[in-house]
Amino acid sequence: MRQVGFLLVAAVAAVPAAAVAQPNVKMDAIVVPSGMVDSGQLIDPKVVVSNIGSVLADSFDVYLMIDDELDRLLYRDSVSMFNVPPGSVDTVYLSRWVPVGRDSVGAFAWVYWQDDVVRSDDTLYERFLVRAMNVGITNVYVPTPRDTIPPDTIRPRIRVFNFSNVPLSFPVVFSIDGWADTVRVNNMLPFGGRSVTAGPWYADSGDWEATIVVELEGDLHPEDNERTFPFWVRPGAGIQQDDVRSEPKGFSFGPAGPNHFVDAARLAYSLPVGSHVDLAVYSACGRRVHTLQYGVVPAGQHLVVWDGRDDRDSSAAPGIYLVHLEADGYSRTRKLVKLD
Asked: Is the pTM of this model over 0.85?
């Protein structure tokens, strides 16, 4: 009898534990692009779930909720899963989300299956950043828009501001007619401003147009990334016109004045050396309307007036015209608008 009793106990102990069913689905991951997304970017949220139990998961729900630092709900969606076999791993795609603004947000995902016997692995929480890329030109110091400055060597200078919540690097391009300079801004701190100086540029007497562009790819508000404005270089107080250097350092073709005109428009250009010049007015579709100058022109500053008439001495129709200058390899075009 002792021997029989021993055999019975051994038989009971040999029943494998794996024969007991273990329903268990698990939340594995919340997929966020590099922990950072751009404001306005189209996001297709997804989570990864797996059935690590030993039975078929007939039906369960997957949820995702995103809120900001003030616990305001920004996004919520759910998907139902059916007949997920043991050992499978699935990526669950939820409805599209478009983040707006700049904030640190939290994503909370969970899976619910009524038969799940292990609840501790059903939830997952991740934080990521919504990045608002935005810089802008807030001030122009030199040359001052629509100002008059004396002939001199100047260094154009502006102030830019980083309105975003991350450090940014970008180039700033300064151009005044045929002159240009690019200044690289590196790791500009969030919500901070910085002065950017280019140059030097020699300001000869004449009418000029400056363009300053901040080239930040993906900027949310590109409308504040560029400034274009005319300015004038005139002899300053106490400077006689004869004291102004008559031969400029380089070719230039200033903006027309006025840009919108009725009777006549002035066009100023400079030549560092005597050059063969072809200065002509073209229609917006490229037809040559009037030749203003053609031939060899001496070095210096030159002023040409277009009276709004074509080569047949007829009044040109109102509209947009292009004035093109060719001088020994130098080429520039200015736009004019002739009014009624």
From this structure: no
Residue 8 maps to a domain:
no
For residue 235, what pLDDT is reported?
58
Total H helices, total E strands in the chain = 1, 26
Do 33 and 89 lie in one domain? The reply is yes
Query: Is residue 121 located within the same domain as residue 189?
Result: no
pLDDT computed for residue 258 by the predictor: 73
Contact 165, 179 (CB under 8 A): no
Q: How many domains does the chain have?
A: 3
pLDDT over threshold 50, residue 245: no
* Span 267-294, average pLDDT: 90
* pLDDT at residue 324, rounded to an integer: 93
The per-residue DSSP string of 322-337 comes to: EEEEEETTEEEEEEEE
Own/partner contacts of 217-225, CB < 8 Å, gap of 24 or more, are 218/38, 218/133, 219/133, 219/134, 219/135, 220/39, 220/40, 220/132, 220/133, 220/134, 220/164, 221/134, 221/136, 221/163, 224/136, 224/137, 225/135, 225/136, 225/137
Domain carrying residue 256: 247-338
Using CA atoms of 173, 176, 180, 186 in order, give the dihedral in degrees to the nearest 10.
-20
Share of the chain above pLDDT 70, in %: 88
